[in-house]
Amino acid sequence: MRQLSQIPPIEKLLNLPEIEAYFTLLSRTIVAEIVKTQVKEYRNELVQTNQSVDITLLLDKILVKLAYQNKIRIQPIINATGIVVHTNLGRSPLPKAIWQEVGDIVCNYSNLELNLLNGKRGNRMGLLNQVLQAYFGGESSIIVNNNAAALHLILKTFAEGKEVIVSRGEQIQIGGGFRIPDILADSGAILRDVGTTNITTIDDYLNAINDNTAIVLIVHQSNYYIEGFSQHVDIKQLAANLPEHVMLVIDQGSGNHLAAIPSELSVNNYLKIEPDLICFSGDKILGGPQSGIILGKKDKINKLSKHPMMRVLRPGKETYALLEKILIHRLNRDGKADNSVELLINQPLSWHLARAKQLADIAPEKLVLKATKFMVGGGSTPRAQFDTWAISINSNLHTSTLIERLRNNNPPIIGVIQNDQVLLYPVTLSDEELSIVKDYLTILTTEIDF
Ligand SMILES: *Cc1c(COP(=O)(O)O)cnc(C)c1O
């Protein structure tokens, strides 16, 4: 016989240690809400089925819901995917030492918009303008919330109602729904596509120019490349041939610095061509906070900074502070804010092998060393691949079950399935993360059904 009165009161359930443990993770309010809903559903179920109260079953239901909520909470994960800059995994991790330095600024009042020399209203860019110039080049700079915003602001400021010429080979989609033609349309600019998918020549660009042309836009191909019979224009030569009224704008995407990946076009090299403007993300290869960085000619940057949209797109103080600090430490080469992409691609292969071996040695028949390549990701071309060693996990478990098991660890371990095998790439793991993965694999490989 059901006795609904046997169900403990909500307050009593909330005091159970296994439920209370979720207060700090989810808040007492959300936990209480979940407990109430589950109790209510359980009551209805009992009434309908005429079963007796089973407290353990009720607790299970509550704990399953809490665990579910806990998964959607933002939290650190272990990136064993072999992709260094992974948009789904928060792109670049920030250097901890810099985060602490910046904490002193953002947890206090700051001179974000106060000129300490004269006590008047100041400019958010402050020293950052000079720091960006010292690191990349260019005359002047401005930053917005991300690179999509940067491109949008540029197009809206200089090309609303005017034509923007883009090569057909550069009309790309990046990740979740960022399409060059869509951004263009939304900003009010008119897309004028030229050339073909594989070949666009200087004449293609020059012949398309008319009085209503505002910009020639060069888009870094980011996540793909064309192999075989293809040809890119010599941008320097193109720049030299553009009429006075047409601006050269480059969406460089990755923020690659000359030293980080020498084989990829860098912001520094593009700036030598003296484009009117160049924009890129702050949290891809540069390794900073989410931001869109625009560098270029002073008069053009001034115009951007005065556009009403700038107020809509401007970042918070954390972003200015983080970028300034990271780049100062980079310029000083003091090791506090090293570029992780640069560090990883310069490690000898023996370093990569030694790390993978630490994992394989746990159970050599089940954890097999695999020579493979890691990718830089984040708006660099797929050609930015470098030799590394991973481990492939030999198990009776189905690959999708195994990948889920890894993901259910605390902290979650994110691996990849390649050629029907689960692979873990130790290249991006810190020493601490490597030992977490080691401990996990030590237990996993001894399980019966493994
Ligand atoms: C990544 C990327 C963008 C979008 O940058 P967000 O910072 O994610 O807004 C735009 N253009 C190119 C070429 C990119 O690679």
How would you describe this protein?
By secondary structure, the chain is of the alpha/beta class. Helices cover 41% and strands 17% of the residues. It is built from 19 helices and 16 strands. The strands form 4 sheets. The protein has a 7-stranded mixed sheet, with helices on both faces. β5 and β6 form a beta hairpin. The chain starts with 9 loop residues before the first helix and ends in a 6-residue tail after the last helix. The relative contact order is 0.13. Bound molecules: pyridoxal-5'-phosphate. Pyridoxal-5'-phosphate binds next to α8 and β9.
Question: Which helices and strands occur, and which strands form pairs?
Answer:
Blueprint: H1 10-14, H2 17-20, H3 23-26, H4 28-49, H5 55-72, E1 78-79, E2 83-85, H6 96-106, H7 128-136, E3 140-144, H8 147-159, E4 163-167, E5 173-174, E6 178-179, H9 180-187, E7 190-194, H10 202-208, E8 213-219, H11 235-241, E9 247-253, H12 267-272, E10 277-281, E11 292-296, H13 298-306, H14 308-313, H15 317-332, H16 340-345, H17 349-360, E12 367-377, E13 385-393, H18 399-407, E14 413-414, E15 416-418, E16 421-424, H19 431-444
Parallel strand pairs: 1-14, 2-12, 4-7, 4-8, 8-9, 9-10
Antiparallel strand pairs: 3-11, 5-6, 10-11, 12-13, 13-16, 15-16
The structure holds pyridoxal-5'-phosphate (PLP).
The site of pyridoxal-5'-phosphate has 14 residues, from helix 8 and strand 9.
